[in-house]
Design a protein that fits this description.
The complex is a heterodimer of chains A (410) and B (915). Chain A is mainly alpha-helical and 410 residues long. Chain A contains 13 helices and no strands. In chain B, helix 4 runs parallel beside helix 14 and helix 8 runs parallel beside helix 10. Classes of the chains: A mainly alpha (410), B alpha/beta (915). At the A-B interface, helix 4 of A face helix 23, helix 24 and strand 34 of B.
């Protein structure tokens, strides 16, 4: 255990370093503007949008496990559903941060909300970004409420040091959650409704995020299959994330004993099956391009198959579709190292997948056929790392204060 | 911006406030109708003349509060007829550039102008009295007043020699050739207005030429056919119907073959050379029977042009070709510019003069030997004692370091002068603005004061104006003067010059000459050919940020012009494209340049477009290259390279504007006949506007000179982002010109100007989260900068990629942001805002309010956009849709990326050639 606690300290300190780096870069970006990023006049959405799509995708599996699997009566979800929910709210915060920073004039971010004003200047409700803002915002509120709601039975285990939250928790304990039978009956049916609403929201949010891309004119984005492709990708990356986190938790904390091998194996199976679904969509996308013989779609396919994107493409295919096949072997499926390897690979692979979805399409000029060159700068990379660091730190800090493995048997 | 910068700008702008708003006492408004800006009484339009390499170009200058902010061509001017060259428009920057506000100096001490002048004149007088020579080198201005001053001075003082040297040196080789052939000193300008066939030997008359404004406005691709033989890559070559790529020495031979073949054809007409049969001709498939037939068919309407840097042999062959093809039925307009009596115009400065004569003082008046391809003079200056050199120039450049006495020169909008047009009429240069630098002096003013001082021992600068008005009124009374000045020229023009006299006897001797010179093969590989470039002109435009930022039309490089060579040579010498190399020459110091390979070139040497380096002797400006070493991470540190002075200490980096490269995509793929197909649209509620503004682009007319880009940049206050941003592809050009190598449209290269298409169903409008971009009634896609939050969704969804993003604010972006320079009617954009072509909405609004003021019907007004006004070949036209469609009845309208069903409002007219 001592060896692991040493590693834990190292990981935490690196994460804090990343958070500091990311925070400094964010402040720097706000001061000097977007010239500090690697954007140019063609590739105007850089890896910050990749990060946004990736993190919001990761957040989906939390709701999938806590809400959808609840409705489907999957009892094995019990030990990990709060891990997944916690992940959800952290990742939504991270993902919402990127579009904010990504704006040319972030100090006017409130213009994106439909607040009443004298000039009657409302946001454009035809724009996918407006839908996006509303969807992500409501998703965050609902997930947060659901998370709080799930904690209610475990309130006595919540340990907080700061004053106001402790007071709130105390009042909740006194007035709302006494643990009576009435409490439990009400809790049960309202959990049902919550889960039902969230199921709709989770599908719609990522569909709406995909509308950012599918409502445009750009080849390979402009497709009706893109939303479902996005949702599948999101769940795939989220499952991999949960697998990764649960393996790590089982190594580094005493909670690990609760997350049994069976649970992890079940998630591994899901990961494997989603790799096939995603592969199907991936093949479908290429098929669409060749079947339609659309000149510009073919150009994008060609761009993805040429340097430098071909290297990333091959890496992505190996990470996303080849490595998960290790789960086909019964012996390997149960091994924590293999689970860690595959889930890590899928996480990186999904990030690459988002990168390859966005950057090559933007880099192409359809009139000249010219492909502009995009290279992330130090600021870009440190923001990305900062997000990873923030996730680790936030998850650690929350898991210290809140029972991350549910104590009740609901 | 640093504090020091800020303070200096504050200082300059306050300086402008107090000094620049002064308008000259006498100024005549233009005859050209004030088509816009009616609500502003302090907006005025003046017609004047701007020298383009010394020759007059008629311009109209628009001023607000008496400060010029826009220049357009004067359509009534007999020579230029409304055409401009990019540096003339961009020279507004030079007018306000803080770098030019220098103090007159003697040694290192600053003095007032009058003190420096009297000191200079006194010392010149002493020198003359001592019996030593005084050499005055002044910029060449084709002006009778300067000639008169010069002659007066030279006649009264033997020891005073005044040389007019061309700053933009193109004509010198032709003049030398003419002198060899005809024993006369003149320059021939061949008019292409009436011609049907132009056979061109390496002359880039559509871009990089002394007479670009003259040729550009007469050029009509639908009327002429151009056949170009060239080894370099030029815009004219790209614009020709047929382009033959040869190596340099082959061109003379091909020309000669053409001469012999044509002479055989004309044997019956009595002007042929039967004797030529004995010359063994190299087999040449290039000259097809078709070309000869074409020339025969259009006899009397063929013109042969050859580049100025060609040898006298080629010049002679061209004269002969003209003579035998057009013969007695000659209808061409020849403009002969006689230079023998009027001025001391030197084709090349004779360096032996410097050694033989007893020279006391040397004076340079707005003439810089470092720029003007005149090596002996610059070498002479470097060794010459500083005290004996006097110089004046717009900027304090390298010459100033070598001169003991210096005074700043005036901008051409700041003084009065007259110019001689080729038809005999006189152009007037008005003083549009009171000199911003009160300590500056122009070339004619200096000569005038010098003349006064040497004869009367006193001078008065104020008398110059009365002197020039006296000269004006020598032939016209004052009433007429006012009228003439408002037109910009005195219409007294007359005739054209006859064909130069080529007698039969002379011809035979010239054939001998050709035979001899043809046998020599002059060029070897590893040589460098230097061609003057119009963007560098006489040096002052090297400082011009607009000209530096606009992509060079041929290479699309910005902020630094590379050395070009052919792909073959690249392979042979194992060079890397775009890398920097150090070139070592046998007789020169080292030069460091990025080298770029050009397709479609057969040059077995390097060539370079600039004015800076040197003509060695008459024959050629080829320099022997001894060695070539690759340099990495090299920094511009050579101070003598003034063009790059701004970039000192920066890494050599070739920034390329992406859109200017040759497209991989075929025109058929992106141009289609239906802009909008209702059956395929989801949006059925299309509002059809009757009075829609559209822009038509006559694609076959566009010569790709990038002048529209300069005009757009200046008119719309588009930020200059500098070398770093351009190399990161963060350019801000609202117009891009895309090249397509597709000969089937009748030209070697098709240039497609691409600006915002103002689509009826604009993809950018629906996606903007805050509705910052929207449609106005007359079909224009508007951009509300103040509402934009910078989500860049519009840029993503624009299939034409014409929207640009302000990574930095406008004030930060201009390397030297000059408030006076910017157009007061266009907003300056803040950081984080997206922008694009507005169809010059401010001009439309002004025109609308003008028509309302006049009480016209609501929609009866015409508007010219900035790009349309600047286009020298009038390829762009802005107007109501119905009007444009009726005027282009015969040709087919095409739209960009029609499959997207966006219904664009830029109409491209492009027909497949009949051939």
């Amino acid at each position: 255990m001592s060896r692991y606690s040493f590693i834990k300290k190292i990981i935490l300190s690196i994460s804090w370093l990343f958070v500091l780096l990311g925070f400094t870069s964010a402040i720097y970006t706000l001061i000097v503007g977007l010239k500090s990023w690697g954007l140019n006049s063609k590739v105007v959405w850089g890896i910050e949008i990749v990060n946004f799509v990736f993190w919001i995708g990761v957040s989906h599996s939390g709701t999938l496990i806590s809400a959808v699997f609840y409705l489907l009566r999957q009892s094995w979800r019990k030990p990990i559903h709060r891990v997944a929910e916690t992940m959800t709210i952290i990742t939504i915060v991270i993902s919402a941060f990127f579009p904010f920073l990504h704006m040319g004039r972030p100090w006017f971010f409130y213009w994106l909300f439909p607040y009443p004003n004298q000039m009657l200047a409302y946001p454009n409700f035809m724009s996918a970004i407006t839908w996006d803002v509303i969807a992500v915002f409501s998703y965050f509120i609902l997930s947060f409420l659901f998370w709080i709601f799930g904690i209610l039975p475990d309130l006595e285990y919540v340990k907080l040091k700061s004053k106001i939250p402790t007071k709130i928790v105390g009042k909740l304990k006194e007035k709302i959650w006494i643990g009576s039978l009435d409490n439990w009956i009400e809790y049960r049916w309202s959990y049902h409704i919550f889960a039902g609403v969230l199921t709709f929201v989770v599908v719609s949010v990522h569909t709406i995020v995909s509308y950012d891309f599918s409502t445009t004119f750009l080849p390979t984005w402009h497709s009706t299959s893109l939303p479902i492709f996005f949702v599948v990708g999101a769940i795939y990356s989220g499952l991999a994330f949960i697998l990764f986190v649960s393996v790590v938790l089982s190594k580094f904390s005493h909670f690990g004993e609760e997350i049994t091998d069976e649970v992890r194996e079940k998630i591994s199976k899901l990961v494997l099956s989603f790799s096939y679904i995603l592969l199907y969509f991936y093949v479908l996308e290429v098929f669409y391009s060749f079947y339609s013989q659309n000149f510009f779609e073919l150009q994008i396919v060609q761009a993805r198959l040429s340097f430098p994107f071909n290297i990333l493409n091959i890496a992505m295919l190996i990470l996303l579709f080849v490595l998960p096949q290790l789960f086909l072997f019964r012996k390997l499926k149960g091994k924590k190292k293999i689970q860690l390897l595959v889930s890590g690979a899928v996480i990186v692979g999904m990030w690459l997948e988002r990168y390859l979805l966005i950057i090559p399409v933007l880099a192409k000029d359809f009139v000249s056929g010219y492909e502009s060159f995009y290279l992330p700068t130090f600021t870009d990379i440190s923001l990305t790392l900062g997000a990873v660091g923030f996730f680790v730190v936030a998850f650690y800090e929350i898991s210290k204060r809140v029972p991350i493995i549910p104590k009740n048997e609901f | 911006m640093e504090r020091r910068d800020f303070l200096s700008r504050l200082l300059w702008s306050s300086f402008f406030l107090f000094s620049s708003c002064r308008r000259p006492d006498l100024i005549f408004t233009s005859k050209v109708k004030q088509d816009y800006f009616p609500p502003f009484e302090n907006v005025a339009n003046y017609s004047t003349t701007f020298p383009w390499s010394g020759f007059p170009v008629g311009i109209n200058v628009k001023t607000i509060n008496d400060a010029p902010f826009w220049i357009s061509g004067n359509p009534f001017h007999p020579f230029s007829k409304g055409a401009l060259a990019a540096p003339i428009l961009a020279s507004l920057y030079n007018l306000y550039d803080p770098l030019r506000f220098n103090h007159p100096r003697i040694g290192d001490k600053k003095f007032n102008l009058s003190e420096v002048l009297s000191h200079t004149f006194e010392s010149l007088l002493e020198t003359i009295k001592k019996g030593q020579k005084v050499l005055v080198f002044c910029e060449y201005l084709h002006s009778p007043t300067i000639w008169k001053l010069q002659l007066d001075l030279q006649n009264s003082f033997e020891n005073l020699a005044i040389y007019n040297l061309p700053t933009f040196d193109f004509c010198s080789n032709q003049i030398s050739a003419n002198r060899m052939i005809f024993d006369e000193k003149f320059y021939i300008l061949k008019d292409i207005h009436e011609t049907k066939i132009i056979v061109n030997f390496e002359r880039d008359f559509l871009f990089n030429d002394l007479f670009f404004p003259f040729y550009a406005n007469k050029f009509n691709p639908k009327k002429h056919k151009i056949y170009t033989f060239e080894s370099i890559v030029s815009l004219t070559g790209m614009n020709s119907n047929r382009r033959y790529i040869l190596s340099n020495y082959e061109i003379e031979r091909v020309a000669f073959n053409l001469l012999t073949l044509l002479s055989k054809e004309f044997v019956n007409s009595g002007s042929a050379f039967v004797e030529l049969d004995d010359i063994s001709l190299r087999e040449n498939e290039l000259i097809s029977q078709e070309l000869i037939d074409e020339i025969l068919r259009n006899r009397g309407n063929v013109v042969f042009l050859c580049s100025d840097f060609a040898s006298p042999t080629l010049h002679l062959i061209c004269y002969l070709l003209d003579y035998i093809t057009n013969g007695n039925t000659f209808t061409l307009n020849y403009h002969k510019i006689d230079l023998s009596e009027k001025s001391n115009f030197l084709e090349k400065f004779d360096s032996s003069l410097l050694k033989t004569q007893n020279i006391g003082k040397v004076v340079f008046l707005n003439y810089n030997p470092y720029f003007s391809l005149n090596s002996p003079l610059s070498e002479f200056i470097e060794d010459y004692p500083k005290e004996n050199v006097v110089s004046s120039s717009l900027y304090a450049n390298k010459l100033v370091e070598h001169s003991g006495c210096y005074f700043p020169a005036k901008h051409y909008l700041e003084f009065w002068l007259d110019y001689a047009n080729f038809d005999g009429s006189i152009s007037a240069q008005q003083q549009i603005i009171f000199p911003l630098n009160s300590n500056s002096i122009s070339t004619p003013e200096f000569l005038f004061c010098l003349k006064d001082y040497l004869s009367k021992r006193k001078f008065n600068l104020e008398e110059y104006k009365s002197f020039i008005f006296k000269r004006y009124s020598e032939s016209f009374d004052s009433v007429e003067l006012r009228e003439n000045l408002s037109e910009g020229f005195f219409s007294k023009g007359s005739d054209q010059c006859p064909h130069p006299n080529l007698g039969r006897v002379q011809l035979r001797t010239s054939i001998e000459f050709i035979k001899q010179s043809l046998s020599q093969q002059r060029l070897q590989s590893k040589e460098i050919l230097i061609i003057p470039h119009q963007y560098s002109y006489a040096g002052e435009y090297s400082y011009n940020i607009y000209l530096n930022e606009i992509p060079e039309p041929i290479s699309s490089a910005t902020w630094g012009i590379p050395l070009f060579t052919s792909l073959d040579l690249f392979g042979k010498m194992e060079l890397l494209d775009g890398e920097t190399y150090c070139l070592k020459f046998s007789d020169l110091k080292e030069l460091v340049f990025p080298i770029v390979s050009l397709e479609n070139s057969k040059a077995n040497y390097f060539f370079y477009y600039d004015n800076y380096y040197i003509h060695k002797n008459f024959d050629f400006d080829y320099l022997d290259l001894v060695d070539l070493v690759r340099k990495q991470n090299y920094y511009y540190l050579d101070i003598s390279n003034v063009r790059f002075e701004r970039l000192l200490g920066r890494k050599i980096h070739l920034a390329k504007f992406s859109r200017n490269n040759f497209s991989d995509i075929k025109l058929e793929e992106i141009l289609g006949t239906t802009g909008y197909d209702e059956s395929k649209s989801i949006n059925k509620n299309r509002i059809l506007q009757d009075r829609k503004w559209v822009m038509s682009v006559d694609v076959q007319k566009c010569i790709g000179c990038n002048l529209c880009m300069v005009a757009c940049q200046i008119e719309n206050n588009i930020p200059i982002v500098g070398i770093e941003f351009i190399s990161k592809e963060r350019d801000m050009f609202w117009i891009g010109i895309q090249k397509f190598a597709e000969p089937k449209y009748g030209k070697e290269v098709i240039f497609l100007p691409i600006m915002c298409q103002h689509c009826d169903f604009a993809p950018c409008e629906s996606v903007c989260p805050v509705g910052a971009t929207s449609h106005i009634q007359e079909g224009i896609n508007e951009m509300t900068y103040s509402r934009c939050v910078g989500s860049r969704f519009c840029m993503v969804n624009c299939p034409y990629k014409v929207r640009k993003f302000n990574f930095i604010s406008s004030t930060e972006a201009h390397l030297n942001f000059l408030p006076r320079m910017s157009n007061p009617f266009v907003t300056i954009r803040s950081r984080g805002v997206s922008e694009k072509c507005t169809f010059c909405i401010h001009r439309i609004n002004f025109a609308k309010s003008l028509s309302k003021l006049k009480g016209n019907e609501e929609y009866e007004y015409d508007v010219k956009t900035a790009c349309q006004e600047a286009c020298p070949v009038s390829a762009l036209f802005f107007g109501r849709k119905e009007k444009i469609l009726t005027s282009h009845k015969n040709s087919e309208v095409k739209y960009l990326l029609p499959k997207l069903n966006t219904s664009p409002n830029i109409l491209y007219f492009l027909n497949v050639s009949d051939e």
